[in-house]
Known about the structure:
The complex is a heterodimer. Chain A is an alpha+beta fold. Chain A has helices spanning 55-59, 67-70, 79-93, 101-133, 144-150, 152-173, 193-222, 297-300, 307-313, 320-332, 343-363, 414-417, 419-434, 441-453, 501-505; strands spanning 16-20, 30-36, 42-49, 182-183, 186-187, 237-242, 254-258, 264-269, 278-281, 290-293, 303-304, 382-389, 392-400, 406-412, 470-475, 481-487, 493-495. Chain A is globular, with a radius of gyration of 23 Å. Chain B folds into 2 domains: 7-77, Ubiquitin-like (UB roll) (Roll), CATH 3.10.20.740; 86-209, Alpha-Beta Plaits (2-Layer Sandwich), CATH 3.30.70.20. Chain B has 4 helices and 9 strands. Chain B has helices at 23-29, 79-95, 110-117, 153-162; strands at 7-10, 13-16, 53-56, 59-62, 73-75, 141-143, 167-170, 177-180, 207-209. Chain B has a 5-stranded mixed β-sheet, covered by helices on one side. In chain B, strands 6-9 form a two-stranded antiparallel ribbon.
Amino acid sequence: MDTRPLETADNPAGLRRIAIDPLSRVEGHGKVTLLLDDDNRVRQARLHIVEFRGFEKFIEGRPYWEVPVMVQRLCGICPVSHHLAASKALDRVAGGWPVPPAADRIRRLMHYGQIVQSHALHFFHLASPDLLFGFDAGVDQRNIVGVAAAFPDAARQGVMLRKFGQEVIRITSGKRIHGTGSIPGGMNRAVDPAERDALRAELPQVLAWAQDAVSLARRLHESLPARYADFADIPAAMMSLVGRDGAMELYDGVLRLRESDGRIAVDGFDDQRYRELIAEAVKPWTYMKFPYRRDLGVDDGWYRVGPLARVQNCDFIPTPRAEEARQTFVAAHGGRPVHAVLATHWARMIELLHGVETVAALLDDALITGGPLKAEGPRQRSGIGIIEAPRGTLIHEYEVGDDDLVTRCNLIVSTTHNNQAMNEAVRAVALRYLDGETITEGLLNHIEVAVRAYDPCLSCATHALGQMPLAVSVRAADGRVLDHVLRNSTGELLRDGPAHDAEAAQ
Amino acid sequence: MSGVDPTFDLDGQPVALQPGDTILTAAARAGLDIPHLCWSEEVSGSASCRLCTVLADGRPVAACVTPAVAGQKVDCRTASLATQRLRLLQMLFVEGNHFCPGCEKSGNCVLQVQAERAGMTDLNFEVLNPERPVDASHPDVLFEPNRCILCQLCVRASDEIDGKRVFAIGGHGIATRLLIDSPSGRLGDSALSVDDRSAHICPVGALLPKRVGFAVPIGQRRFDTEDTRG
């Protein structure tokens, strides 16, 4: 099914516009616009990111040691991912890479705590209402309060799993949200043994909950109504970090790209050379950039990141319970690559279980309670840090002047990698479920369900400052275009061209 | 009366005083806090910030430079003074760019803790959003003028402790700023050393030794309490 033409309608004039604005139960602000003709046929469908953050710009001019804390403010859900990606990049700048083993373990502990809390938040609070009640259930029920009323045990487990992850973050960074633990070259704190022991005591229960969560996600996936069997099933290449041995690796590894048919396209790729692998494109109707594989170009080079990609990109998961769950996932799909977006929830809970198991192992590691915490070495002028955030691959890159101020910053966040994949999902669902139908709230929620499966963090993902193409049209009351100005991605202003189709969908 | 130390009254409590005491030094010795930003026992008083304004026998004075007088009645914790202190702090916040979440001084910052103690929950005034370029020219010390509150502690420390006179205050009104004594006006060309006291005395995050950043973990910072310990 070729969904590509739906990005831009041939002739937007006269089409009826429907906007899902704002998207609900996602992080940040975004909207979906649909253009329909007189027969309710979908002619254009787009996911727009309508907020603007510009973090890349205001990091410039700041001293580099400030950055790992400052960039956390990109987000309140996965600040740890930005904290650690920036730290890993600036470890290089400070000459402190690799960090000492104790600092490495404590950072990993923080990161896997983050995976647990973020995945629990998304599955239980944001996604489960759709899965438990149905995509077109009443809006009064399709929310976390509805879940708490109808499925109190599941709701409570979600809250408690998240709390556990937040506590792991607190004992490693000083605060549940926006702590300061990681610094260029290492850590500023070790784990207090008493706090470690308190978390250890909770582990048997938390592990049981995490296994229940995998079972629940699997059960919900396998019991989806038949009409959702091919829901947003869009073949896509998959990218993630993996360990050098092919293991699932979320903190530090090498890049692997797998084609949609399962063949490995790129493997063992040094994360410091990521720019040889991918580039970013901009489009005039959204603040979110479009990364693509350089070898395939803008149109064909898009790919998917996040749990669905990671669970299939790795050769194995290095913790026993999660590996068993992964094998079950693979077997349930006959060993074939899985691209149905709803399977992401199942994959996400497998990762949550892996996160809890990894936290358990790290809490048993004596290194986390002390030892040298900071490495130092010759200052470098630039650094790249890549990490697997809950939502997918997260890239931070900095250049730092001799005066210690950041001169350039580039962030490619997980949601940005998934931009085209999410747009493809929107178009596929619009064609499959909405085309020619009388539009209802329940049908529109189908589109949100597809976007939501990616757990997009839209507030993290909007940084196209300075490269943002912009189209402005002035129209008379009868719809005639009186003036049209297009600023292209190099900042050049173009006039008297045809009215940009983007204008119609804003 | 012989054998009895002279005292003055601070908010109803007797405070012993010694020759040469200001109201603030006598109160500090007695363990009584008078809010202040620009005072340090290491250098002379300057009455720059006026946060320590008290009523001495009903007259508003800066406690950091006003001699303590036996028998005097001093009011510090009045509702009116609390409001004035709050407004003063709010003005300091809006005149600069004070973003605690990303500032390495957070938890060790006197401005931050005074604002918290004053119950500051908003800015009250329109923010001025000044654009002041960071001076990172010194190899070991960073000057972040967006956070400077013109308290003059660095000026006095450089004059009185370091003997270098690296800093001065120049300009008038809202354009008042910290000047650096060097041919270029930049820190890197000045006589400042990171070992100087003036490089460490800043109560906010304006003058900072480089590459320290967030080295002190949450829970061990100067003003951490049970609430901020995480």
